[in-house]
Amino acid sequence: QKEVEQDPGPLSVPEGAIVSLNCTYSNSAFQYFMWYRQYSRKGPELLMYTYSSGNKEDGRFTAQVDKSSKYISLFIRDSQPSDSATYLCAMKRTNAGKSTFGDGTTLTVKP
Amino acid sequence: EAGVTQFPSHSVIEKGQTVTLRCDPISGHDNLYWYRRVMGKEIKFLLHFVKESKQDESGMPNNRFLAERTGGTYSTLKVQPAELEDSGVYFCASSQAFGLGAGELFFGEGSRLTVL
Asked: What is the pLDDT of residue A9?
């Protein structure tokens, strides 16, 4: 069983829609929860991260972590065509170097 | 400031041949990671250097893979001999922090390896 499962998608939404991207995990030792965005033929880039449970907002992006359910989400408000990319959740333990990634969800925002 | 650079961007080799991938991390980043994405699968951790030392090599698939980081600067990942299942995109990432904080990873664009 994979440690991190990500809703596979792909997702296609109209411009302006609210997007919800989700991951579940099995390892309760994970404390850092990251969301990366990857454009085609590029490397992933960190969007935001959260430590332990709670919400974090950055502009149009909100990350939520529910450790009791082992469930994390990324919400994108007022989605734009430039948000079209693959979104990857990733997690790591405190004092650990490596991150464990989900498969990624490909999002297309249509004008 | 230059980001993480990887070379080559794409390599096509025959099964049984050798390939060496190179990664130049961001200057000053002591932590260097190799990850791999095989088609249809998730990005998987291969190993982690802190300066020139291997901190964690638990993700290396087998002894056909050899990673080095001479002098704690650039790193190479050699696959010898290459097998069909080694095809994929090999990402290098670097970070300043290890342990404390999320240790933001800065990824290169990846080296795409195709084994025929």
From this structure: 84
